[in-house]
Design goal:
disordered C terminus, 0% strand, single chain, rod-shaped
């Protein structure tokens, strides 16, 4: 009977061991599933952050290209304005030069008129050549 008792204890022990093994396997699978879920969640979180950063970087690069294009256009427009204003300034200077030339001619003509009047008066005072001048002058 000791043998059957020993056999019964051995069977009981092996049964407990098998149940424990099964419980450990179930716990191991549950732990693996939990770790796998956690890993996926972490990867998704990191990936969503990476995707957001990548999309923001694309937006920034696009805006930088647009800004560069606008800067080039602004430079062209500014250069055109400078060219137009330089031409306008040149024209104004030429008008000023023309006015100065007109004033110089007017001054020269005034001097010439004065000299001619003086010469005419001198010639008229001597009795010669001034009669024509006096005939044409209104009385």
């Amino acid at each position: 009977d000791a043998m059957s008792m020993f056999k019964s204890l051995l069977d009981e022990h092996q049964g407990k061991q098998a149940r424990m093994k099964e419980e450990v396997e179930v716990s191991r699978r549950a732990a693996l599933a939990a770790v796998s879920g956690l890993t996926e969640s972490l990867v998704d979180t990191v990936n969503s952050g990476v995707v957001e950063v990548f999309e923001n970087q694309k937006k920034i690069e696009e805006e930088a290209r647009e800004l560069q294009a606008k800067a080039v256009k602004f430079a062209r427009v500014t250069s055109e304005w400078v060219r137009i204003l330089s031409g306008f300034d040149k024209e104004l200077r030429e008008i000023g030069d023309f006015e100065n030339w007109i004033k110089a001619v007017e001054h020269d003509l005034t001097n010439l008129t004065g000299v001619l009047e003086y010469v005419a008066a001198e010639n008229g005072g001597r009795g010669g050549g001034g009669s024509e001048q006096q005939q044409h002058r209104p009385q």
